[in-house]
Design brief:
Two copies of one chain form a homodimer. Helices cover 39% and strands 23% of the residues of chain A. Chain A contains 13 helices and 14 strands. At the A-B interface, helix 8, strand 14, helix 10, helix 12 and helix 13 of A face helix 8, strand 14, helix 10, helix 12 and helix 13 of B.
Chain lengths: 313, 313
């Protein structure tokens, strides 16, 4: 198995100005794995309750997502989140969070899972992330996501956890908050000095940036005239990013840069419909088309300035 | 003369968390023309008072900026602005604005000025911009900047003015405000339907975007670890953008894209020190170095997805 994700498989209820869903498949591991499945084989470590039915199972099966490390608690209920977005779709308003079976989640990895080449530690409590990290010590690349709540409430545990990860994938505000530094470039340096050798910063409609100690790479977002439901966009980005890397033999800067594009492409589809609905029906041709669009919308001729001026004076 | 700018030549008093200046050269036409002077010949249409001394004049002279259309009112005072920035350097707090001789400014263009190939209508009252626009009807490219105040107070006049300009150069929030549309892609379409055939959107630390009805181009900002004084960054961007275009024979999409990079390069230098201080001492090699850095930080290999996956499966 090339890629492992630990995170939540959940049910979401979402309301936006454009419509609503009362119960749909959600959670970080769901968004991540369905997105990654277009690029590689992926295995999910998570816990669900008896309400996780054959219907949801089939969604993963159709994408060849391996569920043998999915823990099922028949008399429990799956993690549930209810949220609402107003016309400013940048901010999710949480109306209800029921941890349910997730409250006592202790990720257990099969021997096969422990041998994963790449691992994504989805946004869960940093102690749990560290528990998984320590079981996959031989992985070539371990990446981690987190959120404002963990940065506030469990900062020390989080700092301990990121010591042992290679890549951190977080959003703009989280990077500034974690580093306690308003300038993003300085915040990135500070975070990389704590462990990660690369930092991926998601900036929503402004795109994404990849920092390493020696290099900087930044891309715009795919230009969308309407955003329908941003839930899961970050995990879908991470799924495209890690899934593409898992398809590559060399995890070098060039591969990371292409992975940034594929992550952005997948996230751009995710927000076009509710939950995982759009990504579920994606075709390779649609993915390629947006990848090519990224090249088109960022490309310029590198004609040095003196030459250009001399030529016309 | 290839490039004309109409705007303000002023004195600024600026205080930031890092220092202060009580009286320094400022104003949109100053920032614009000094920036543009690295790429082309530029002429300024503005008005100053008797306090505009030989010292300020020499700054323009050193950069071969043509001041023969600069109106001087010996017994008046130049436009004066006093502002303060807090640690969040994104927002200027205006403490004092004295229009002085600018209050009765009626731009008068010499015959030579009227024959300019490119014209930049800096951020002044839209009626005045229109007055200039109508005197340069033969120009190949007319660009316009504006600000939130004019969009609020003189919306109808502004809409009348942009009917006759080719390129609009404004910031993110202004584009959304002018179009009354929160989605930037839709806002851009709406603005282009009112006249301009291209729209340049400045996004501060997030970079800049170029919209045409058929294409989209977006670049990040040059990554700076410290921003010292953002005053004039927008006009310095416009100066690099228009100045580079003026150096080119063909004003096509490829030239516009390179112009976006040069605009961003010039703005990145502007914010490193007070007012025009950093840009005044720029060398061509420094400009080129950042141009090359832009290529480096946006470049990725366009390897189609199927090929990459097939190669490793």
């Amino acid at each position: 198995m090339s890629l492992l994700v630990v995170g939540s498989v959940a049910f979401d209820a979402v309301e936006t100005p454009f419509g609503k869903r009362e119960k749909m498949l959600g959670g970080s591991a769901s968004h991540f794995s369905i997105s990654a499945s277009f690029f590689t084989d992926v295995r999910v470590v998570a816990v669900v309750g008896g309400d996780f039915s054959r219907e949801e199972e089939q969604v993963f099966e159709r994408h060849n997502v391996n569920l043998s490390d999915l823990e099922r608690i028949a008399d429990g209920k799956s993690f549930f989140w209810r949220g609402r977005y107003d016309y400013d779709l940048n901010t999710a308003h949480t109306l209800d969070t029921q941890l349910n079976v997730f409250a006592d989640f202790q990720p257990k990895l099969s021997e096969e899972a422990k041998r994963s080449r790449l691992v994504f530690l989805g946004n869960i409590q940093p102690d749990l992330q560290r528990g998984v990290r320590d079981q996959v010590a031989g992985a070539e690349l371990i990446a981690l996501d987190t959120m404002n709540m963990w940065i506030e409430v469990t900062r020390d545990s989080l700092l301990e956890t990121i010591k042992g990860v290679h890549v951190m994938i977080i959003n703009d505000a989280e990077a500034r908050q974690l580093a306690d530094e308003p300038n993003l470039i300085r915040a990135a340096r500070k975070i990389m000095s704590q462990g990660p050798r690369a930092l991926v910063v998601k900036r929503g409609e402004y795109g994404a940036a990849l920092f390493t100690p020696e290099t900087y790479f930044a891309i715009p977002a795919y230009p969308l005239e309407s955003v329908f439901d941003p839930t899961g966009a970050g995990d879908t980005f991470a799924g495209g990013f890690m899934g593409y890397l898992a398809s590559q033999e060399k995890l070098d800067e060039a591969a990371m840069r292409r992975a940034m594009i594929f992550g952005s492409v997948m996230a751009s589809f995710n927000v076009e419909e509710f939950g995982t609905e759009r990504v579920q029906r994606l075709t390779y041709e649609e993915i390629n088309e947006r990848f090519r669009a990224f090249k088109q919308m960022t490309n310029f001729e590198a004609i040095p300035f003196e030459r250009a001026v001399r030529a016309t004076k």
